[in-house]
Design a protein that fits this description.
Layout (H helix, E strand, L loop, with lengths): L2 H13 L9 H11 L18 H30 L6 H34 L6 H11 L7 H13 L15 H12 L1 H4 L3 E5 L2 E2 L2 E2 L2 E5 L1 H6 L7 H7 L4 H6 L11 H14 L4 H21 L13 H5 L3 H8 L10 H21 L7 H25 L6
Antiparallel strand pairs: 1-4, 2-3
Helix pairs in contact: 1-2, 3-4, 3-5, 3-12, 4-5, 4-6, 5-6, 5-7, 6-7, 7-17, 12-15, 13-16, 16-17
Length: about 400
């Protein structure tokens, strides 16, 4: 027999009703379903089967997010040695980056699962696999120097206030990972302001520097002088198109690599996990509003108005948000028509927030959370429009 299955079979009696660990049965079930499909089956026909269960759905998302995590680990190490003026091999950078990033990921899972287990035990329902994805996405949106206690508070706020108070997975209308990130953004603006990212620095000679700050591409683009252009300022700051596309620059842990986000989005769309309508709507919203601002630009307007709209897709966490946040099946609309509108408005709001409100240079986070609130309304409108097109009963 499979040794892992044998282990779970021996422990099951302790978590069944009457067992000494019965209150923690949701935790046992969650751990078992990491390795095996649910043992529950329909007792009689008809038997419904689907190749894409909730468990597989969440695992596929995590698989496509892992490259972003690995790149973030490497980038954290690379930027650390670069800031210190030192060189190192790939494995040394990965090891140093892992010591920066992995504690944040571990803390996110410990506190995310902790709250999920508590609420599941009290409500006596199974633990939802959604916490696997939320606990992975949340730390990838953070700067690498985020204090551990802030990460714990952020994921706790996201899981409890963003999901559990509404009844848990399937009943929440806000993305838990972004809810936690937004809480940290407003509660601790110095570390989460978005206009600068802090880089952990390794030993520099006989002196050890904890961290230095570096202006993000969003900050560079939004503070261009009237006599220059955003594209030129980004290039002069070292943010060429190639650098922005690859993502090898200081930013949030997992949100900088556009190429990895594109690969993840394409694969998830092929697997049927992500909605291509939402993602294409996101892109069209960014480009259309960006080109509209280009048409409205004049000699007296900010250089941000005339920036090539494609740059909005390259800078900040736009690609990461489009690939893994906007397509959240719980907080996004369910109807096809509503998904197009939902995606378009997220893309449009992202550009509008960035250009007209420099205090919030990222834009994508607030745009997604704002549209999360209106997703049920968009579904309701789409259903009503569909019903009106039906032939009336005679």
């Amino acid at each position: 027999m499979n040794p892992i299955q044998n282990f779970f079979d021996k422990q099951r009696k302790h978590f069944e009703p009457g067992g000494r660990l019965a209150p923690w049965e949701p935790f046992y079930e969650a751990m078992e379903r990491v390795f095996f499909a649910s043992p529950e089956t329909s007792p009689q026909a008809p038997h419904c089967r689907d190749s894409l269960s909730v468990q597989r759905y969440m695992m596929l998302v995590i698989i496509m997010v892992l490259p972003c995590l690995l790149f973030g680990i490497y980038n954290a190490g690379y930027q650390s040695f670069k800031a210190a003026g030192q060189s190192a091999d790939v494995w040394t950078m990965l090891w140093f980056g892992a010591k920066i990033v992995m504690p944040l990921v571990i803390i996110s899972y410990i506190f995310g699962f902790g709250w999920e287990i508590i609420f599941s035990a009290v409500r006596k329902h199974p633990i939802s696999e959604g916490v696997f994805v939320s606990a992975m996405l949340f730390p990838l949106t953070l700067p690498p120097t985020t204090p551990w206690w802030q990460a714990a508070i952020g994921i706790s706020f996201g899981v409890v206030i963003g999901k559990e108070v509404f009844g848990g997975t399937g009943r929440n209308f806000l993305n838990p990972a972004l809810t936690g990130r937004a809480f940290l953004y407003f509660a601790y603006p110095v570390q989460m302001s978005g206009d600068a990212v802090w880089i952990v620095v390794c030993q520099n000679g006989n002196r050890i520097v904890d961290a230095i700050s570096s202006a993000t591409p969003l900050a560079v683009a939004s503070t261009v002088k009237a006599s220059g252009t955003a594209e030129t300022a980004l290039t002069q700051a070292g943010y060429s198109i190639q650098t922005l596309f690859i993502g090898l620059y200081p930013d949030s842990i997992g949100a900088s690599s556009v190429v990895l986000c594109i690969i993840g989005a394409v694969v998830l769309m092929i697997w049927g996990v992500a909605s291509y309508r939402i993602i294409l709507g996101d892109i069209f919203g960014v480009l259309s509003v960006g080109y509209l601002l280009n048409l409205l630009a004049n000699d007296g307007s900010m250089p941000y108005f005339s920036m090539n709209p494609w740059y909005h897709l390259l800078i900040g966490g736009t690609a990461f948000g489009f690939a893994f946040m906007t397509t959240d099946p719980v907080s996004a609309p369910d109807t096809h028509a509503a998904r197009w509108v939902y995606g378009y408005l997220i893309g449009a709001l992202t550009v509008i927030i960035r250009v007209f409100n420099p205090a919030f240079p990222e834009g994508i986070m607030l745009a997604i959370l704002f549209m999360n609130i209106f997703a049920p309304l968009l579904d309701q409108i789409a259903v009503k429009v569909k019903l009106k097109k039906r032939i009336a009963n005679v």
